Amino acid sequence: PRGDSAELARQLTMAGLEVDGVEPVAPPLDGVVVGRIIAIDAHPDADKLRVCQVDVGGDAPLQVVCGAPNARAGLCAPLATVGAALPGGMKIKRSKLRGVESHGMLCSAVELGLGEAADGLLELAGDASPGTPITRHLGLDDTAIEVDLTPNRGDCLGVAGIAREVGVLNRVPVTPAACDEVPATIDDTFPVELVAPEGCPRYLGRVIRGIDPHAATPTWMQERLRRSGLRSLGPLVDVTNYVMLELGQPMHAFDLSRLTGGIVVRWAKEGEKLLLLDGREVGLDAETLVIADRKEAVAIAGVMGGELSGIADDTETLFLESAFFTPTVIAGRARRYGMHTDASHRFERGVDPELQRRAMERATRLLLDIVGGAPGPIVEAVSADHLPRPATVRLRRERIERLLGVAIPDAEVEEILGRLGMQLDQADDGWQVRAPSYRFDVAIEADLIEELARIHGYDNVPTSRPHGAMTILPEPEQRADAVRVAATLIERGYHEAITFSFVDPVRQQALDPGRAPIALANPISSDMAVMRTTLWTGLLAAVAHNQRRQQPRVRLFETGLRFLQGDDGIVQEPMVAGVACGTAAPEQWGETRRELDFFDVKADVEALLGLTGQAGDLIFAADKRPALHPGQSARILRADVEIGWLGSLSPQVAQEMGLKGRILLFELSLKALGQGRAPVYTTLSRFPAIRRDLAVLVDASLTARRLCDAVRETAGAWLIDLQLFDMYSGKGIDSNRKSLALGLTLQHPSRTLKDSEVDTLIDNVVQRLRDDLGAELRE
C-alpha cells in the first residue's frame, strides 16, 4: 500500500477493521550483527565455557567466550559487539571471563527480546552474511499492526484477508499465497467418513510419509509466528499455525501411526472421554462434534486435538486435516469446556468453505520444504447439500443514495464490489450481487451498501443535516411521568438506585409469597434465577449493603418494571418503589433525634400522589401483606382500585435479610401516577375567612379520613380548608376512644360570613358526627 504504517493503520480503521496498536516488531538492536563461528576451543579454566573465533565480516575474527550448548563451528548466530545495548539493559563491554578476553557476546533469542525461552544461541540461516546487522538480516525494521476485528469479519482472521482489504482500499492487485497443487508421490490414503455432515460438510485429509522428525523450523517462519504472537513448537505444529495465520484456515496434524481404521466425523457419545493436547481429560456431551477414528474420539472438532493421536518427537507419518465446520455447531463448544482456541475463534465466525483444498496444498508444500517426506493424494469427503450457499442480494441505485446521502457512480460501485470478490449481474434498477464464499456477513441490501460506504470512504460521504417536519407533541399537565416522580423523591432526600430485574428466589418468596415469579431458563447465577414481582427485592438488598458499611440512614427509590404472569403471557408493569430507614432527619441541633415512622414515609407517598392533582381521591386502607408488619401496613386505593402499598417491613423478614431497625417501604404503579387531573383556576375570595376548631372523641378504630369526609360533606362549599392537627389517646380518655382535633377554615366567595351562619354550620357538623360516627365533643 501507498504510505507508511500509520497511514495503513488509518486506512484499516476507517474501513471497519479497527487497529488496536502499532508497535515495532523488535526492540532497537544497534551493534548486533550476524556472526559465524569459524573455530571453537575449550576454555582453559572452565569446563562449561568455550572460546570461539567469530567472523563478523572484518579483517580479523573476534574472540568471544560463550557457554551456549549449541555453539559449534560453522554456526551463524547474532553477535552483540562491544558498545551494543541489549533490550534487558545490558551494555556489552570488553571483558575477561576466567582470564580469557571476550570481545562481544553471542546471543539467544531471549537476550535480543525475540523470545520468551531459549535453549541456546539463536541459530541463523547458514547462508547468512557475517557482519550484516541483525535487524536487516531478520527484517526487524518493521512494524506489527494489531487489528481488533468485529465478529462479523471472520474473513479477515488471516493475513490473506487483510491483504485483500488493503488491495481494495488502495486499488492495487494482491499477490496470493502460493497454493499450487502438490502431486502425490505415493498412493497411501486414509479413509474419511462424514456421519454428521450437518456439522462438517467438508473434510480433507492427506497422508505424508517419511518426514524428518529432527528437522527444525526455519528462522523466517519462527520470526513470522513470533510477530503474530505464537511461539514456535516444532515444524509440524508451526506449519499448521502458519497456514492458519496466513490463509485463515485452521488445520491439524495427526500421527498416522496412532490412528485406527479411518477418520469418522460424528457427534460425541454422552460421557465419552477425551484427553486433550493441554493435558486435561474432558467428558464430552452428545452436542459436541468430534473427529474420531474407528476406536475412539481423537479431537473436538474445530477446537482442539487429543493428546493420544497428536504428533510426537518421533513422528514420521502424518495425517494432515483441513475441514469446514458449520459455525453454529462450533459456537460455544470451546467455552463449554473452559477453552478458547485460535481454531474455535475462527470456526465460530465462519471459515471460507472453499478454502480447505488450497490450505492443504499450501501446508503440504511448506512441510515438504522443511521436513521432507512423500505426500499421498488428497482424500475429500463432502456433503454438498450441507455446504453454505453464498447469498444473492438485490442492490438498488436509489437505495444507495437514500441510505448514504451520496450518489456513487455505477462504475465505482461495480469496481468496489468486484474487488471485494462479489459477482454482479445487471438489473433494471441496479444489480443482483452474489457474495463470495468467505463473506458470511453479507445477507441483505444494507450489508452491500455498508461495504460501499467503507471502501468509498466514510470521510468522503458529505455531511448533511436531516430535515423533515417538526411536530411539537403535547405535554399533558395531569400526567406525572417518571422524571417528575424521580425529581420529587430526590427533593425529599431519596437517592435513586438501579437494581437487577433478576433476583434471588428465596428473597422474592419472602417478600411476595402470593405470586409465583417467572423463572429464567438460563440464569446468570442461583441468586439471580427469577424475575422480580416487586422492586422491594433489589432495594432491600441495597439497604443491607449500605448498613453493613456503617450507613444507618438510608433512603432509596427505583423506577422500573415488575414482571407478573398474566393470562396472555408475561405482564411488564412500570412501578416506583422506595425504602427508608434510620432517623427522620439528618443529625443536627435544630431538631430532636427521632426514628423514621410510618407517617414520614406516608408524607412522601402523598407528595407523589399530589403530582396527579387527585391526592384527595386516594384512600390508605389498613390491610395485611405477608412481608409487612401487621398494623403498620396500608393498601393504597383510587376508586376502589389498588395502585400500591405502604408499610413497615416485617421484623421476621428484616432479620432473615440481615436488616437492622425499622424499615419503611412503599410501591406505586407509575401508570396510576400518570392518570391525574389537570389544574383548574378558581377565583380567590376578597372576604375574610373564619377558623373554628373542633376536638371530638371517637372510637379508636375510626379512621381520620371517615371523620374528615363527613365534615366536608356537611360543611359544603364554604369549607375551603380542613386540617387534622392533633390526635390523642391515653390518660383521661377511655381506652377504646381517641381524641381528634380538626381545624375548619370557612369563607364565602362573595360576602362576609355572619357568626350566626358559622355557628349553625358548626352545629350541623357536630350533629352529623354525633349521629353517624358516634362522636362527642371533647370539653
Layout of strands and helices, then pairs:
Layout: H1 5-14, E1 18-24, E2 32-43, E3 46-55, E4 62-66, E5 76-80, E6 95-97, E7 100-102, E8 105-106, H2 134-137, E9 143-148, H3 159-170, E10 192-194, E11 202-209, H4 219-227, H5 235-247, E12 251-255, E13 263-267, E14 273-275, E15 281-283, E16 289-292, E17 297-300, E18 304-305, E19 317-324, H6 327-330, H7 333-336, H8 342-349, H9 356-371, E20 374-375, E21 379-382, E22 392-396, H10 397-404, H11 410-419, E23 423-427, E24 430-434, H12 445-456, H13 482-491, E25 495-496, E26 502-503, H14 505-511, E27 530-531, H15 536-547, E28 554-566, E29 569-581, H16 598-610, E30 618-622, E31 628-638, E32 641-649, H17 651-656, E33 663-669, H18 670-673, E34 690-699, H19 704-715, E35 719-728, E36 737-746, H20 755-773, E37 776-777
Parallel strand pairs: 10-13, 25-28
Antiparallel strand pairs: 1-9, 2-3, 2-5, 3-4, 5-8, 6-7, 11-19, 11-20, 11-21, 12-19, 13-16, 14-15, 16-17, 17-18, 22-24, 23-24, 26-27, 28-29, 29-33, 30-31, 31-32, 32-33, 34-36, 34-37, 35-36
Helix pairs in contact: 4-5, 5-9, 11-12, 19-20
Rg over CA atoms, rounded to whole Å, is 42 Å
Number of helices, where a helix is a run of at least 4 consecutive DSSP H or I residues = 20
Largest sheet: 7 strands, mixed
Spatial order of strands in the largest sheet:
25-28-29-33-32-31-30
Structural class given helices, strands, pairing?
alpha+beta
Residue windows where pLDDT falls under 50 for at least 5 positions: none
Relative helix content: 10-25%
Mean pLDDT: 91
Distance between the termini: 102 Å
Oligomer status: single chain
Strand share of the residues?
25-35%
Number of E-state strands: 37
What overall form do the CA principal axes indicate?
elongated
